[in-house]
Amino acid sequence: MTKMFNLIKNNTFKLNEIDFNRGPEQEPDPFKNVPNQLSGLRMNKPKGPELRIEKYKRIVANVDFEEINEMRNWIADKFPDIDYAEVVALERWEVLEAIDEFYDEKKKFTGLEKWKKDNQSKWEL
Questions:
Q1: What is the arithmetic mean of pLDDT over 112-121?
Q2: pLDDT value at position 69?
Q3: 119, 75, 81: which is closest to 97 by C-alpha?
Q4: Which residue in 103, 48, 51, 53 sits closest to 74, CA to CA?
């Protein structure tokens, strides 16, 4: 500031030499060309296999308990090597694919179609 004051005082300061559009000198941003790792991520929302698991958990949560037990028994018969806890948790791709087959073969989840219509916004992932 004192340097600017001395320039004005000595009458050596010229306004036309100053570029007012130029900001202060800055170092180049080292992260300018690095893609943002968080872009596109939805916080607290599942992705990939977890998304499908969450979808099935929501479906199963709205199905009759007897039908859930029937589905679990059907999966346990189809995959005897899978532990019952895994069948309950629905955490393996084989289990999820078996659920797809179960829906196709049994065709008795009539409440599921009504639930999908009632919760259309939740259903579209």
A1: 61
A2: 72
A3: 75
A4: 103
Both tokens assigned to 37? 């790792």
The predicted-structure confidence for 54-100, as pLDDT tens digits, reads as follows 666 666 555 566 766 777 777 777 777 766 665 555 545 555 666 66
For the chain, what is the radius of gyration of the CA atoms? Answer: 32
105 burial (CB, 10 Å; 0-12 / 13-18 / 19+) is exposed
Class of residue 109 by CB neighbours under 10 A (exposed 0-12, middle 13-18, buried 19+): middle
Q: How far apart are CA 23 and CA 94, in angstroms?
A: 60
Q: Average pLDDT in the 19-36 region? A: 56
Question: How far is residue 103's CA from residue 98's CA, in Å, rounded to a whole number?
Answer: 9
**Number of helical (H) and strand (E) elements in the chain, helices listed first:** 7, 0
Burial 43-78 (b: 16+ CB within 10 A, else e): eeeeeeeeebbeeeeebbeeeeeebeeebbebbbee
The three-class DSSP label of residue 52 is: helix
